[in-house]
Amino acid sequence: MIEPHGAATELGDDQLLAMYELMMTGRLLETRLHNMYRGGRLGGAVYPGVGQEAAQVGFAYALAEGDIYGGTHRDLLSQLVRGVTLEETMLNFFGKAAAPTKGRDGNSHFGVLEKGTLMVISPLPDAYPVAMGCALAFKQRNEQRVAMANCGEGATGTGNWHETVNFAAVERLPVVFTVQNNQYAYSSANDRGFSLERVSDRAHGYGIPGVSVDGNDVLACYSAAREAVDRARSGGGPGLIEAVTFRHFGHAGHDPADYVKPDDREQWMERDPVTRFEEFLIARGLLDEARKEEIAARLTETIKAAIDWAKEQDDPDPGSVAADVFAVREPAGDEAAEPGPSGEEEVTFLDAITQALQEEMERDDRVFVMGEDVGHFGGAFKVTKGLAERFGPRRVIDTPIAEAAIVGGAVGAALMGLRPIAELQYTDFIYPGLDELVNEAAKYHWKGGHPVPMVLRGPSGAGLRAGPFHSISPEGLLAHHPGIKVVVPSTPTAAKGLLIAAIRDPNPVVYLEHKKLYRSQREAIPAGDYELPLGKARMARRGDDVTVVTWGAMTYASLEAATTLAEEGISAEVIDLQTVVPLDWDAVLASVARTSRLVIVQEDVPFASVASEIAAVAAREAFWDLDGPIVRVTPPHTHIPFAPVLEDAFVPQPDDIAGAIRTMATT
C-alpha cells in the first residue's frame, strides 16, 4: 500500500478525496471515450491516459493558480486538474463551434490558456520549448510563477527536448520537466529509445536535479512535483521528474497494444494506481465500498451529461474556415507616426535595424532580444552590438545553439505578454525551428484565439560568396505556412519602419535582412519614432511599359536594369513589395492595369515560390489587362553555389532582368 511522505503528508482529507475524484474522473471518462471510439460513436482519435492517473493528478495538483502546464495528447486528466471543464473537453472532442479550438482541432488537442494549460499539438514534445518560454517570461518579470512541461519517455530522444532542458538549465528558469514513462513510445519498448536505466539520469548531463518516482503512486508523484515546483519558484532553477508507470490501452484508440507481453501487463495491472489509492483511503477511513459506488455513479452521470450536452451544440459555421489566421492589431496607444522628412545624417541598412531594436527596447520593457551570440559579441553581423551593455543580460539573452528552443521559447514568452525578438545567425538555420514556428506560433491564434506577438529576424540572401548553407532566401518557404507574416525590407528607411511595425504587431513576424544590403545601402532616414505598415508596397520607380514586381536585394538589380532600359526608351515601373505576407495585391494589380505587362524578379528558387503565386493571381485577376505572358526572372532550381562565377550565374543579374523586360516591352 502507498504511504504519504514529503509534501504529501501536508495534504488534508478533503484534498485527498479531491485527488481521488479527479483520478476516477479520468479513469471513467477516458475509458468511455475509448469505448465510444472503438464502437464507431466518436470520430477523430483518442489517446487514453488510463493507467497514468497517478502521475497526471500528482504532477498537476502540485501547481498553484497562475502557473502554466504544457502537456501532450495523453494529458487530458491534467487539464481537468487545472480547471478545464468536462463540457469544454467534450465540445472539443465533437469539434463544436464553442470548443476551445472552435472545431479546428479535435480530441485532446487543445488548451485553455486562461486556466493555465497550453495548446496541445501532435509533434512531441513541442510544449517543452513553449513552457520554457513562459518560465522565461516569469523570470523576466520577477513573478513567483512556475511552468511545468510534460511528455512521454519516447519524446526525450528528440532535439527539442534536449535543447529546451539545456536552455532552461543554463538560464536557471522556473520550470519543472516531467516525463511519464509508460514503457512504450507507441509500440517501441524503452530499450529501443535509450540506453539509460532511468530517464531521470539525463538530468545529470544538464546540471539539474533529477528523480524517478513510482508513477502509480499519486502521493509520491505529488510530493516530488511539489518539491520541484517549490524549488523552481524560489529561484532554484529547473528539475526533472520521471514517473514510471504503464498505459493500460494502446497508443491510440485504434492500437490493440498486442506488442505488450501478457506477463508484463499482468504485473502492471496488479499495481493499478486507482486501486492502490483506494486502499490507502480505505485504511485512512476516508473511503468505503458504499462511498466508492456513490462517487463512481455520480461521476458517470456527470460525464454522460457532458457528452450528451456537447453532442447537441452547434457545429462551426463553414464560412469561418478561413477566419482568425491573424490577430488584428487593436489601437493601444503605441502607434507610431508615419515617416516624416528624412534627417541629414545617412545610416546604413544595418544601423537602421539596430536603431529600431534600441528604440523599441527603450520604449517598451516587454521587448527583449535573444539568440546565439547576440550579447556582448553583438551578433554574427553586429546588428545587436551595444544592446547588451545598454539593457543587460536579462533583456539581451545569449542562448545556446538551439533554434527550436529559441523559437518555441519566443512563443511561450509572447503568450505570457512579452515581445520577444529572436535572432537567427543565418536564416538558413531556420529549419530546426520550423516545427515550433509553423505548429505553435503560426497556429496559436487560429486554433486557440491567443495572439503570439514575436519577431524572428536574421540575415538572408546570397551575394557574399557564402555558399549553400549561408545564403538562402526563405520567403517562399515561410509564405506557404498560414499565420506567419514575412517582411523583406530593401532600404534603411524601410528596415527601421517595418521592424518597429513588426515588433508592435500581434502576430509572429519573420523579418528577413538581406546581408548584402547591411552595409552597402545607406540613406538619411526620418527622425524619431515611425512605422511603415506591413502589407504596403513601395513604388521604387514609376514607369509605363512594364511592371516589375520584386523585393529585397533584387529591388536594386531591377532598378539598375530599369535605368539601362530608360536609355533605350523603355519605361519600367518597379514595385518593391517590402512585405511578402501580407502582399499588397492592390499595388501589383493597379500597376499591371497601367502597363499591361508583368515581370517578377526574385532571388529564391522558382518552384512553388512567391513569384509563382504572384504570377498565378495576376493571370486570374488581371487577365484582360495583360498584353503578353507573365515572365519570371529567378535562379535555376538548384542550390546556391560558392564560386563567384557560379553564384553570379545563380542570382539574377541586372542584364538578366533587362533582357526579360526588353522582350516583354517589344513583344
Write structural notes for this entry.
38% of the residues lie in helices and 14% in strands. Helix 19 links the parallel strand 20 and strand 21 (631-633). It is elongated, with a radius of gyration of 28 Å. The strands form five sheets. The chain has a seven-stranded mixed beta sheet, with helices on both faces. A five-stranded parallel beta sheet has the order 1-2-3-7-6, sandwiched between helices. With 667 residues, it is an alpha/beta fold. The longest helix has 26 residues, at 13-38.
Features of this protein?
seven-stranded mixed β-sheet, 667 residues, five-stranded parallel β-sheet, alpha/beta
Gross geometry: elongated
Main beta sheet: 7 strands, mixed
User: What share of the residues does DSSP label as strand, in percent?
Assistant: 5-15%
Number of strands: 21
What's the rounded overall pLDDT mean? Answer: 96
Structural class: alpha/beta
Quaternary structure of the protein:
single chain
What's the helix count? 21
User: Which stretches are poorly predicted, pLDDT < 50 over at least 5 residues?
Assistant: none
For the terminal residues, how far apart are their CA atoms? 89 Å
Q: Helix amount, in percent?
A: 25-40%
Strands of the largest sheet, in order across it?
Answer: 10-9-11-12-14-13-19
Topology:
Blueprint: H1 13-38, H2 53-61, E1 68-70, H3 76-81, H4 86-93, H5 127-140, E2 147-152, H6 159-171, E3 175-181, E4 184-185, E5 188-189, E6 210-214, H7 218-233, E7 239-244, H8 262-269, H9 273-283, H10 289-311, E8 342-348, H11 349-363, E9 367-371, H12 387-391, E10 396-398, H13 403-415, E11 419-423, H14 434-448, E12 455-460, H15 475-479, E13 485-487, H16 492-504, E14 509-514, E15 522-526, E16 538-541, E17 546-550, H17 554-566, E18 572-576, E19 579-581, H18 585-595, E20 598-601, H19 610-621, E21 631-633, H20 644-650, H21 654-665
Helix pairs in contact: 1-2, 1-9, 1-10, 2-7, 4-10, 5-6, 5-13, 6-13, 11-16, 13-14, 17-21
